[in-house]
Amino acid sequence: xxxxxxxxxxxxxxxxxxxxxxxxxxxxxxxxxxxxxxxxxxxxxxxxxxxxxxxxxxxxxxxxxxxxxxxxxxxxxxxxxx
Length: 82
Hints:
Layout: H1 3-15, H2 20-28, H3 32-50, H4 60-72
């Protein structure tokens, strides 16, 4: 590898706030499986945490109708808005 090529890789890594090794692994796709597994784990963790809370729910058809009605109606203007 030429010095100029190495310097370009070094600059790219620095601009991405990554090590050269991490940049090359990401570029070459090495470790992408590991990252997908971590990402999946984080998503499942978030879902499990969300399931611990009680959120307001309703009939899906009613909720969809309310959403659609909101698209049709003009936005409500408060007296404080200009």
